[in-house]
Each structure stands twice: as structure tokens, then as C-alpha cells.
Amino acid sequence: MKRIAIPAIVVALLSGVLMTVLAQNTTKGAEAAAPAAAAASAAAEPPAEVICFESRKGATEVTQRELKPGWPNVKCSPKTGAALWYGDPYDGTVPMGKMPLMEGIPEGNAVVKPRTAKLNLYPMCGVACHNGVGPTFSPPTLPKDKKPTATPTMAAMVPDLANLQHGRGRVWCLDCHHTTKRNMLVDHFGDPISMDQPQLLCGKCHGDKLRDWRDGIHGKRIGDFTSTGKKRWFTCTECHNPHNVQDGERNKGFIQLEPESPPQLPKGFTDAKFELTHPIPQH
């Protein structure tokens, strides 16, 4: 019996040690596989959508996407959420169209990005509300005077209209919006203007700003900066909110943004005095 018992005890001990080792290896294997499984799961999920604004927060937003592998259409600031760099400055643009005193610019060299597709209320302006269609709408009638009339529905959709600052009380809706085509703007002759060309409307009153914008000293432009190169022109309402022109703490039409962080010093430098040295020795 002793001859049988001793080998049995040895076998049991060895089996226990072997099971412990196997259990430890299994646990380590599971722990090692967990990050890989998590990474595989993360890779299976689509990446989070990155959206940044170009000129005015909440109004000129662009979604980041790849023009080709590793080449995004736009780079967004992680601090302000603004567009910092464009992979293609002409992405999504169309020719501006005819502009007075700009006939000398070759066709296609001035392009703009249409905004009507991004205006949430645009489809309703001339289709659902202001044409009398729908069970709750009566046939449209024009006001008998220019005194603004409170409309709860419009005030709820466009809160800026409750305290319209544009013109300091001397302009109202139909000075800018067409009387019968409410999804369009209007010029001095009563002719409709596309909302993709607000500069034709704004120039009615702001002629000096239109002149400066046309000459390239007001507004924003990106693309080829040679004098005859192709450029994307940013239109008035991409930068200015026409319903609230005194926004921000300074009442100057823009909500102030926290500035970007200063550039990092090159490796090994403790200050920026090197920038005061001209690269070419002066004699």
C-alpha cells in the first residue's frame, strides 16, 4: 500500500502544480487579450465626427473628412474648434457669379461656398410657411406698414428677431427679404437675390464695406494669393450675423474667442531672441 500511496501523492502534487501554472497562464493570456479585444472593438466602431467652424461659430461649420487617405479636407483647432488649415481650399465651392465692378476677374477664379443647404429654416421660408400651404396657415398677405409685428412662431425660431439690432430700429424684415419669395433676399429694384450671394444685398447700405471687400481689404479669402490666382471668397453672412450685429462683449459683431496658444520654441532654445537676428548678415 505504501508503494502505491507515495507515487499517488507525488502525482497529486504535480497535478496541483500543473493546474496552478495553467490557471496563471490562462489568466495572463486573458489579460493580454483584453487590450487587443478592446482595440479591435474600437477599430470596428466608426471614428467620432469632427466638426469645426470656419468664420462664425454655429453658422459656418465644416465636417472633417478625408479627401484621400491621410489627407483631411480641414484641420480643426483643439482649443477653439476653428478651422486652422485646408487640404483643399476650394472643396465644396462654386463660381461666385456676376458681381458689379468685378468683370475683370477671370471666370471661375472667384468661388464661394453655398450656404443655403446649411440654413435650417431655408426649406420652410418659401415652401411651408410663407406660401400659405398647410392646415394652420392662411393665404399670405403683405403688411400695410413697416412697423414690425410680433410673431410668436418666428420669435421662437429666430430669437434674435425679438430685439433686432440691425439698423437701430430703422430697417425691418422686408427691407432685406423678398416680399413674396421669402427664401430669397431683395435688391433696391425689388428683384430677388440668392441667399448664397448676400453681398449683393449688404452692399445696398454698406457700400464702403462692399468696396473694401471687393478690393480684398475687408473679409476673408483663401486659396492662391497671387494677384490673378483662384480664391475662395467668404461672403458677408459667413462672418456677420445679420440679425444680431452687436454681439460679444465689445458690441462689435463678433463673439470673442480665446486665442490660440503661442508657438512652441524650437528644441534647445530658452527664448525667442533668435528671431531678432536677420538670417542674412547686414553690412
The residue fraction in helices comes out at: 25-40%
Mean pLDDT across residues? 78
Share of β-strand residues = 5-15%
Which stretches of 5+ consecutive residues score pLDDT under 50?
134-139
- Major sheet: arrangement of strands: 7-8-12-11
Largest sheet: 4 strands, mixed
**Gap between N and C termini:** 108 Å
Helix/strand class: alpha+beta
Looking at how many chains there are and whether they match, the oligomeric state comes to single chain
What order do the helices and strands follow?
Answer: HEEEEEEEEHHHEEHHEEH
Number of helices: 7
Number of strands: 12
Gyration radius, rounded: 32 Å
Features:
283 residues, extended, two-stranded antiparallel ribbon, 12 strands, alpha+beta, 4-stranded mixed beta sheet, single chain, 7 helices
Write a compact overview of the structure shown.
By secondary structure, this protein is α+β, with helices and mostly antiparallel strands.
Commentary on this structure:
With 283 residues, the protein is α+β, with helices and mostly antiparallel strands. 28% of the residues lie in helices and 12% in strands. The strands form five sheets. It has a four-stranded mixed beta sheet with strand order 7-8-12-11, with no helix packed on it. Strand 5 and strand 6 form a beta hairpin. The chain is extended, with a radius of gyration of 32 Å.
